[in-house]
Amino acid sequence: MRKSLILLPLLLCASPAFAQRPPPQLPPELTDPATAQRITDAMQALSGALLNMRVGEARAALEGRRASPEERNLTVGDLARRDDPDFDRKVQQHIASVGPAVRHGMRAVNQALPQVMHDLDDAQKSLERALSNLPDPTYPQR
After folding, report:
1. Could you please report the per-residue DSSP string of 84-132?
2. 3-class SS at 80?
3. Is residue 89 part of a domain?
4. Domain that holds residue 79
5. Does the pTM of the predicted model rise above 0.70?
6. Is the predicted pLDDT of residue 87 greater than 80, yes or no?
7. Where would you tag: which of 1, 56, 87, 134 has the fewest CB atoms within 10 A of its CB?
């Protein structure tokens, strides 16, 4: 017990090995603003592809009938615009907000990463201590 009281403050002190190790960070590719722009561009292309997908024939088939000639060209975007005349503007605004949100998220992860790594290291040490105190299953039983 006395030994642990003496060693505990020593374990909590900063050691030179820890002081020399740079804090972990995300790779520069993930923190680059160009990456966020590429994600925004990809979201724009994917949403355009989804909104232009034809669903008129599938809708008619689900209703158990044949699609009319006008229904064959009906797209997801057409269905969404029926309920909301500002649908296109809202989608564009939402996609435009993706880039800043991604950049903000990357910055937050980068700031939290050193503490997360430190906490994971502490958890690993605690698990190692707990496992070292388990009885040896190969030790002869009485």
Report:
1. -TTHHHHHHHHHHTHHHHHHHHHHHHHHHHHHHHHHHHHHHHHHHHHHH
2. helix
3. yes
4. 30-124
5. no
6. yes
7. 1
